[in-house]
Design a protein that fits this description.
Elements (H helix, E strand, L loop, with lengths): L5 H12 L15 E6 L19 H8 L5 E7 L20 E4 L2 E4 L23 E7 L22 H7 L4 E7 L1 H15 L2 E10 L3 H13 L3 E3 L5
Parallel strand pairs: 1-2, 1-6, 2-5, 6-7, 7-8
Antiparallel strand pairs: 3-4
Helix pairs in contact: 4-5
Bound molecules: zinc ion (ZN).
Length: 232
């Protein structure tokens, strides 16, 4: 498993730099919260190669939701074209088959979010001006990266936790696509890292809504909160 111990890492960082003593957001009404917008990319939207049903419906909600936050971070799935999570990398396999990859269970996806392609671009409908950071993930061909914090084997960190900690963030709100994969795993890692975590239920859509219901139970039993954003 992992050589990374997130909670210890966070404790060390806080201790070393005394982040909690600082107030980067003194003038903000929502001073210690950040919004993480996961993978609003063309391939995950209707017409894309791995489209999430109704995925486009969350974009206007997310655009409005951003007004609640001082700190907005985007994630972007960003695969090399030979990525091992692609069904095309495995002869005689079919989309959505499962294999073992680097010690983790891997769903074999249709090719998606290949670096530099139209499908990998953030949706033109997504407002991105407020985003101070875009975290690209899934760049190592040998392992997938659902979470915005770590790859699936916890072999590498994206640096997102350190960024949020240095910004004084205590609570993260998560939205985007897809609910049952990248949103869920980002949320679970955030809990493990010691953040307060909420998923904005009406600003995310699942590939498999039934499986997502089960994952949401796990998320909640670990202290996660689901809320609805209804400020439209
Ligand atoms: Zn991917």
């Amino acid at each position: 498993m992992s050589n990374i111990f997130p909670s210890k890492l966070v404790a060390n960082l806080k201790d070393k730099f005394q982040f909690e003593e600082r107030s980067f957001f003194e003038n903000s009404s929502n001073k210690s919260n950040a919004l993480i917008i996961v993978d609003i990319q063309n391939d995950f939207l209707p017409g894309g190669s791995l489209a999430v049903a109704g995925g486009d419906e969350v974009i206007p909600i997310i655009n409005e939701l951003q007004k609640e936050f001082e700190l907005v971070v985007l994630t972007q799935d960003w695969h090399p074209k030979n990525h091992q999570s692609f069904v095309s990398s495995h002869e005689s396999k079919r989309p959505f088959d499962k294999i073992e990859l680097n010690g983790t269970e891997q769903v074999l996806w249709p090719n998606h979010c290949v670096q530099g392609t139209q499908g990998a671009k953030l949706s033109a409908s997504l407002q991105t001006n407020k985003a101070s950071l875009i975290i690209r993930k899934g760049m190592d061909p040998s392992i997938d990266s659902y979470s915005g914090f770590f790859d699936n084997g916890r072999l590498n960190s994206t640096g997102l936790a350190g960024y949020l900690i240095e910004k004084g963030i205590q609570k993260v709100s998560i939205c985007g696509l897809a609910a049952d994969f990248c949103v869920y795993f980002t949320a679970m890692d955030a809990i493990e890292l010691g953040f307060e975590v909420e998923i904005i239920g009406n600003a995310t859509k699942a590939i498999n809504p039934i499986e997502y219901k089960e994952k949401l139970k796990i998320f909640k039993s670990n202290g996660g909160i689901e809320r609805t954003f209804d400020q439209l």
